[in-house]
Amino acid sequence: MRSDKDFQNQLKLQIRSLPQSPGIYQYFDSENRVIYVGKAKNLKKRVASYFNKEASATGKLRVLVSKIARIEFMVVDTELDALLLENNLIKKYQPRYNILLKDDKTFPWICIKKEAFPRIFPTRNLVNDGSEYFGPYASVKMMNTILELIRQLYPIRSCKLNLTEQSIASGKFTVCLDYHIGKCLGPCIGKQSEAEYLENIAEIRNIIKGDIVTLISNLKERMHSFAKAMEFEKAQIVKERIEILSSYRSKSLVVNPKINNVDVFSFVSEAEVAFVNFLKILNGAIVQTHTIELKKRLEESNTQLLEMAIAELYSRFGSQAKEIILPFKIDLDLPNSKLLVPQKGDKKNLLDLSTRNAKFYQMERQKRKDLVDPNRHSKRVLEQLQNDLQMNVLPEHIECFDNSNFQGDYPVAAMVVFKNAKAYKKGYRHFNIKTVVGPDDFHSMEEIIHRRYKRLLDENEPLPQLIIVDGGKGQLSAAVRSLDALHLRGKISIIGIAKKLEEIYFPNDSMPLYINKKSESLKLIQQLRDEAHRFGITHHRNKRDKGTLKTELTTITGIGPQTANTLLQTFGSVNKIKQLDKETIATSIGESKASIVFDYFQAKK
Which residue in 63, 163, 167, 269 is deepest, having the highest Cβ count within 10 Å? Predict the structure, then answer.
């Protein structure tokens, strides 16, 4: 807070005078700009909470409080009024420290134009001329399906003529092609009355709103009236409309048709932003869907973010839902609406569907960003990895090692390189272990780490920021010994990853780190480990195919590489074969060759 005691006292007096009523408050800075708008059930308690020691101790709140020069408030009747007023003021002033509502302004709407014989058309531009706008439609396909249904059912004009009574009476208009093909009934030449035309518009309005059930019921009454009056042609036209609408409604049902006039809100959050999807359900059908994005400013809670989204969508769509389905409880009183957090059943399925829509929007948003900046995704993953591993630098260059042996003999190793979170295959290397006899993963790892980085030092090549060792504490300790010998300890970060539980080990720390299984940084580490393992197996296979992998078995007269490989694949290692009897060996290569192998090892004992 400011050091000026007079100023502090002035603010304290103002806070003491605040009413304990629901309302909204506005914070102004020294230049009389609105920097924050908030709502409260109790204005006095809420505003006072900003100036206590705990609130001012947090970074973002401390900055906000330090800039407050003046406070204004407005008392309202209900908490809902406060929520809606807060939302309107935020959109009006765009305060620096409020949640930022982001929306794709290019979503299309269906417009019923305010004019004589109204036209109906899609638009992305909302004009404040009294016309009716329905939407926005996140799915253009959904909007076009509705418009196509309307065109199929009703002959509505598409021209832009000014159809006043005087202009029609003057006879200055002529019909167009739509009239001749039955898509328009010719109101421009007086062939259709405005009253009849507006009846169609009223029915279309119900279709757009999704109230198909009420419309079908009204049409059935009209059909029976026409039939009683012996107007069978008109009755048949209405009957065809009912059949088309019934077919459309059956395709639109998503859940129990008894679920009617329900709003669904789902919530998906990440570090800096949150996404809220909205579904409107009428008679078991989704008639409206929309997703908005909220950018966090003051470490707002999930409840605050969801309430803000509800206020925005509530005011935008003028919802009168009797029931609102939510992902978690919120402390908000919405008159004439019941709040529900479903745990199972059709309503839970609706919430899950809404959540999938929010996640889809989240993914699409990320894809759009990645298209604009192809390196954005890689940089985000590396920043997450840097944060998870508490590194001082961004790990743009990572090297991962995997050592293995072929059936217990002749150990080999592989190294893969990733640059900017992508495989850099020119940097891949294979190693034949030179100083270690027999299968010894620890000393093999020590050898290849020493060889790799001694060479880079000798050739003055750049070092990686991160080394990953495939293995637990033992392999990691062996690798660290080589870094110590090369005086590289502390200059390169190094970790080991144990396969079973995906445990991350650090040097001189017996407690492993468990990274979230869904984390992109863990997926990158796993990708490096798996790629090193794949590359190492390829090395083994190539050596076998070329016949360069020698074993003691291939030195036995009469035993070739294929027979030797069969024995190793069956029994595991040469040492184990030495302990077998002739009959057991014969199960793999037959009695004749088994006798040769058995006699060879017996002679060496």
Answer: 163
375-414: b (≥16 Cβ within 10 Å) or e: eeebebbbebbbebbeeeeebbbbbbbbbbbbbebbbbbb
- List pLDDT tens digits, range 170-196: 888 888 888 888 889 889 998 889 999
pLDDT reported for residue 436: 74
Distance (Å) of CA 6 to CA 3, 9, 47, 576: 9, 5, 19, 89
Q: What does the alpha-carbon distance between residue 243 and residue 247 come to, in Å, rounded to a whole number?
A: 6
What pLDDT sits at residue 49? Answer: 82
pTM of the model: 0.47
The pLDDT of 259-276, averaged and rounded, is 86
Nearest to 324 by CA among 337, 315, 311, 313: 337
Q: How far is CA 20 from the centre of its chain?
A: 40
pLDDT-wise least confident of 224-228, 229-233, 243-247, 440-444:
243-247
d(CA 286, CA 269): 24
Domains annotated on the chain, with CATH: 5-98 (3.40.1440.10), 109-252 (no CATH), 262-370 (3.30.420), 384-545 (3.30.420.340), 552-604 (1.10.150.20)
In angstroms, the CA 569 to CA 549 distance is 14
List, in sequence order, the alpha helices (H) in 50-176.
Answer: 53-57, 59-67, 79-93, 140-153, 165-169
Alpha-carbon span 260 to 346, nearest angstrom: 12
All residues at 6 or more sequence positions from 141 whose CB lies less than 8 Å from its CB, including other chains: none
Tokens of 214: 């009420």
Where helices occur in 194-341 by DSSP H, the ranges are 194-209, 212-228, 232-252, 302-317
353-to-144, 262, 328, 365 alpha-carbon distances in Å: 22, 14, 15, 18
Residues 206 and 49: their CA atoms lie apart, in Å, by: 48
* Half-sphere CA count of 153, side-chain side, radius 13 A: 31
Query: ∠ CA 353-359-365 to the nearest 5 degrees?
Result: 140
Q: What share of the chain is helix, strand, coil (3-state, %, to 5)?
A: 45, 20, 35
Mean pLDDT of 229-239: 85
